[in-house]
Design a protein that fits this description.
alpha/beta, five-stranded parallel β-sheet
């Protein structure tokens, strides 16, 4: 049993941290719950930052996970605008930036990730952006509106999910957009060449220019502001603003300083945790973007940087902290909205893991489901403008049963009938 006089501390004010705090109370924990947030804003969700909020379709208040009053009502002590700067596992204490020392009985690291920086000349110029925090989105929203009014040009480094979603938002404001991407298609490492081209066509139809097979080598400025970018193949592209969308790195500094096991960057990085989201220290847990977990279903160590993982991983860690028997085996899931295309992706199919891609539906009309298979078994599925099927796709992944590809591709065959 958990002693009601215990103190549970959560470092990280994103979705994983906030949902963990909420779950502790929902599960009946009556001790102290302390939530440490290095941002001054109350905990918020990140998907709207590149979707509805950036597009101007959602108001600022819509991004927050709870009303501010919730935390006081739930007796969750918030430390806003205070980074955790030192962790002492032996003493079980966390020190904040202002010197405050907080003792804990159980600790959850939900420290998230930070956008990777461009290591090239010119990144200090006005007009170079990243998108990770609410303040970034607020600034970028104004920039896109201004570019649209003035026929300005945005160059995006990286054709991943963030790069593509911002490109769609920028075009909705009327801005000119060029995406520079070293791979031959967008989302190449996630969707492979088979379906990456779908997103090339989608964006080109809306006026986005792609420059594949190249990287930025310099951001050129004049009077302190961006005027163009250069790529490693010798080309110049006009630019008024630049977005670095080249991925995110897990925030593991606190864990490393404390001597916890972390995963090598070459293997995806992150704080190493078991299936119960417990770190190498039995009193410390990790969840969300920063955690690299042993995944019981997929039989691999996996770090997932998506909303659903934070939404479900935070509560799972909270229950584990309370002594419940937890085996966190959620099928990885994410979604994206770009123009009139909405999609959901479930599963895990990195390059080299699959031998076939099967589609059911009309790819040309962008109304279909794609399945990544290995020896007939579904590793991952992506539904594009087809709804209410993600749960069935995940059931097929969980079953690990070999399927007939022809029946899988036939839209007249219900997905549920393929389940063992």
């Amino acid at each position: 049993m958990v002693d009601t006089h215990q103190t549970f501390v959560i470092v990280g004010g994103g979705l994983a941290g906030a949902k963990a705090a909420e779950t502790l109370r929902a599960e009946g924990f009556t001790g102290r719950v302390i939530l440490i947030c290095d941002e001054r804003d109350h905990p918020y969700e990140r998907p709207p930052l590149s979707k509805g909020y950036l597009l101007g379709k959602e108001e600022r208040d819509s991004v927050f996970i709870h009303e501010p009053a919730f935390y006081a009502q739930a007796r969750i002590e918030l430390h806003l605008g205070q980074p955790a700067v030192h962790l002492d596992p032996a003493a079980r204490t966390v020190r904040l930036g202002d010197g405050t020392l907080i003792a804990y009985d159980r600790l959850l690291l939900a420290t998230g990730a930070e956008p990777r920086r461009l290591n090239i000349p010119g990144t200090g110029l006005a007009g170079v952006h990243h998108l990770r925090r609410l303040a970034h989105a607020e600034r970028l929203r104004g920039v896109l509106a201004s570019l649209g009014r003035e026929n300005g040009h945005l160059v995006i480094a990286g054709a991943g999910w963030i790069g593509l979603e911002v490109a769609a938002a920028a075009r909705s404001y009327g801005a000119e957009v060029t995406i520079v991407e070293p791979e031959p298609t967008p989302l190449h490492g996630i969707l492979g060449p088979e379906l990456g081209a779908l997103f090339t066509d989608l964006h080109r139809e809306r006026g986005v220019r792609f420059h594949f097979g190249a990287r930025l080598t310099e951001i050129v400025g004049q009077d302190g502001v961006v005027v163009s970018v250069r790529t490693d193949d010798g080309e110049d592209h006009p630019a008024h603003d630049v977005l670095a969308a080249i991925g995110a790195a897990p925030r593991t500094a606190l864990a490393e300083q404390a001597g916890l096991d972390v995963v090598d960057r070459a293997d995806g990085g992150g704080i190493a945790v078991d299936a119960a989201l417990r770190t190498s220290d039995p009193y410390i847990y990790a969840a969300g973007d920063a955690a690299a977990a042993d995944h019981p279903l997929l039989d691999t160590r996996l770090r997932v940087e998506h909303w659903a993982n934070a939404l479900n991983g935070g509560p799972a860690a909270a229950r584990a902290m309370l002594g419940q028997d937890i085996s966190y085996d959620r099928v990885p899931y994410f979604f994206s909205d770009q123009y009139d295309l909405g999609m959901e992706y479930s599963g895990y199919a990195p390059p080299g893991s699959y031998d076939q891609v099967v589609c059911r539906g009309d790819v040309g009309k962008r109304e279909f489901i794609a399945f990544w298979l290995s020896e007939g078994r579904v590793l991952a599925g992506m539904n594009v403008n087809v709804w209410d099927v993600a749960e069935h796709v995940q059931q097929l992944i969980r079953s690990a049963a070999p399927l007939d590809p022809e029946r899988l591709a036939d839209p007249t065959v219900p997905l549920t009938s393929l389940l063992p």
